[in-house]
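2024-03-11 09:14:02 INFO worker-7 job=invfold-0412 stage=load source=structure_tokens
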């Protein structure tokens, strides 16, 4: 038994020798799955966009933000 020469990358698929074309039913199922996944994560994406916006605002003003948080914490400790 001889082994084939190794020519760099080896491509492997799960087609098991059959055609690698997709059937219309598979494409329809994939489309439905992607729509379901995108709809389910709408709130999470909105939260991520809000976090990015907050980071974009706070990052350039880091020292000022720390000072304001320290002042707010001191105020809470004094009042309670």
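2024-03-11 09:14:09 INFO worker-7 stage=emit residues=80
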């Amino acid at each position: 038994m001889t082994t084939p020469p190794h020519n760099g990358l080896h491509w492997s698929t799960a087609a098991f020798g059959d055609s690698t074309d997709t059937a219309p039913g598979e494409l329809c199922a994939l489309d439905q799955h992607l729509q379901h996944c995108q709809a389910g994560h709408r709130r999470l994406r909105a939260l991520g966009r809000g976090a990015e916006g907050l980071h974009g605002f706070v990052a350039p003003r880091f020292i000022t933000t720390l000072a304001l948080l320290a002042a707010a914490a001191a105020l809470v400790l004094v009042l309670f």
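2024-03-11 09:14:09 INFO worker-7 stage=report msg="Residues 40-79 form one domain."
2024-03-11 09:14:10 INFO worker-7 job finished
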